[in-house]
Amino acid sequence: MAYASPYVLSFLLLLSMPAVYYLAPRLLMPKTLPAIPDADETEDLALFRRAVLLSAAPAAGSGSGSGAAPSSFGVFGRRPQARPKVAFLFLTNSDLVFAPLWEKFFAGHHGLLNLYVHADPAANLTLPPTPSFRGRIIRGKATARASATLISAARRLLATALLDDPANQFFALLSQSCVPLLPFPALYRTLLTDNNAGRHRRHRSFIEILDSEPTLHARYYARGDNVMLPEVPFDRFRVGSQFFVLARRHAVMVVRDRRLWNKFKAPCLVKEKDSCYPEEHYFPTLLDMQDPDGCTKYTLTRVNWTDAVGGHPHTYQPEEVSGDLIRELRKSNGTYSHMFARKFAPETLAPLMEIADSVILRD
């Protein structure tokens, strides 16, 4: 039996390489990041359904215009009140180091706000001794970067706040590294006096919505080709800040959504992990598709991305904290000043407390 020449075999191998290169991606399943467990999804859907149903109930006699039954008790045992409240939603996977500063921010205004904390169950969280945070931890589930679990956690907070108190009219999502820049009355005035210029003059949501960010293409295709279609074509895809303040109707819109959620909960490809920030994509896209005129398209939370590392913004250190820094962080390109800022290192608590009364909490 004759054997083929080594040169012929080498030539055939060389010819086969392009075919392997082009066919391999189509023959091998792309590796993806972990998906949200089905049990978590089922439990969340039940929670969201309750929140939507309660928000759609008749509001006769409540005086809050919230759309919830006035005689119902919230999940923390309160009756609804007529005055609009701000729900502060803290999303954390570590200790709430800045609780003492927030306690100063909340002092004297507890009738106008509520507080909810979603803590990753894997975090060894030390509950802050401050009264406002005591007993405010909701039942959380595991969260991870580059996954839709952060969207789920935010939706869980929104649904809990909707159920708890129909007077919650604004929902401010914050992280454990966020700090206030102005006193609570300044925030309250901003939220209540800002109205959409349209016919209905409804309160707007403060959420960053961008349609020309340099990495938009990579972020859109992070889950693979055509995964977002047909619900989210590329020209409707938006990005923005992870943290926002939503008006109540938008909070209901978020927890009611199933259509876009089925797209954004899809796991990202491992090779696209650096472009996978679902929580920065889902909320801006959903609200821009459903109520673009009802959003300011800018955020009230200041973030410094000038020296970002690994997807994390600049982290302020103790030596940077000063009255001048706080005043500089308040400046905004939008109509209103920034009300919050991140990211602050835990060690900055002491210098922040030193200027809390003289700068941060002075209007």
Automatic annotation (TrEMBL):
Report the principal subcellular site: membrane
Source organism, top-level taxon:
Eukaryota
Give the UniProt keywords, A-Z.
Glycoprotein, Glycosyltransferase, Membrane, Transferase, Transmembrane, Transmembrane helix
GO CC entries:
membrane
Which membrane topology describes this protein? Single-pass type II membrane protein
InterPro entries in the cross-refs: BC10-like (IPR044174), Glyco_trans_14 (IPR003406)
Give the GO molecular function terms.
glycosyltransferase activity
Q: Where in the cell is it found?
A: Membrane
Q: List residues traversing the bilayer.
A: 6-24
Know the name of this protein?
Answer: Uncharacterized protein
Q: Which organism is it from?
A: Triticum aestivum (Wheat)
